[in-house]
Amino acid sequence: xxxxxxxxxxxxxxxxxxxTIYCNYSTTSDxxxxxxxxxxxxxxxxxxLLSNGAVKQEGRLMASLDTKARLSTLHITAAVHDLSATxxxxxxxxxxxxxxYFGTGTxxxxxx
Amino acid sequence: EAQVxxxxxxxITVTGKxxxxxxxxxxNHExxxxxxxxxxxxxxxxxxxxxxxxxDKGDVPEGYKVSRKEKRNxxxxxxxxxxxxxxxxxxxxxxxxxxxxxxxFGPGTxxxxx
Lengths: 112, 114
Fold this sequence. Notes:
The complex is a heterodimer of chains A (112) and B (114). The mean pLDDT of chain A is 93. In chain A, 0% of the residues lie in helices and 55% in strands. By secondary structure, chain A is mostly beta strands. Chain A has no helices and eleven strands. The relative contact order of chain A is 0.34. In chain A, strands 2, 4, 5, 9, 10 and 11 form a six-stranded mixed sheet that branches. Chain B is globular, with a radius of gyration of 13 Å. Helices cover 0% and strands 50% of the residues of chain B. In chain B, strands 2, 4, 5, 6, 9, 10 and 11 form a seven-stranded mixed sheet that branches. A four-stranded antiparallel sheet of chain B has the order 1-3-8-7, with no helix packed on it. Chain B is mostly beta strands and 114 residues long. Chains A and B meet through strand 5, strand 9 and strand 10 of A and strand 4, strand 5 and strand 10 of B.
């Protein structure tokens, strides 16, 4: 079974600070996704990373993928309160296996 | 508007009373999936479907059934719900064309089984 681990699980940070969320997975996969979930809401797609070395940026968030290390990072630059949410990474299983595996999520709170 | 819809959004029921949660997408996606979300466990895949009449088990299929008779619909059936199926359920869909399988999620169904 493919395992996806995120850390930290909980993150409280001050506005203006930088931080990184890590997503490790246990098997080969070239496709990794980041989602955001606001309290009581559904999941919203943030980034799609489809190859080794892929980097995507949107506003204060930047995601990267290292398939050799089986690691993705979500970097937050100069955090603002609006970024408070839970962030999930998800991995597409290897070819021939059509399941998706989600990490347990990182609950981010940005404090003024 | 491209979307995934689920009904009902909230449901309180009793143990053993069969229920169905509907899911529909209007994006002509081949892939559809059901997840349950529980605190501390993230999202876990219950069942998925690659296309019409093609369904398969995810990680936590026990106690659930699905069907895919039409491309747009993927209902989740609980034949005899139990309290451990109290959870937040999400339906999602994605295209299988191209390299990405980015999933689009429905609004969620909060189920309580008493």
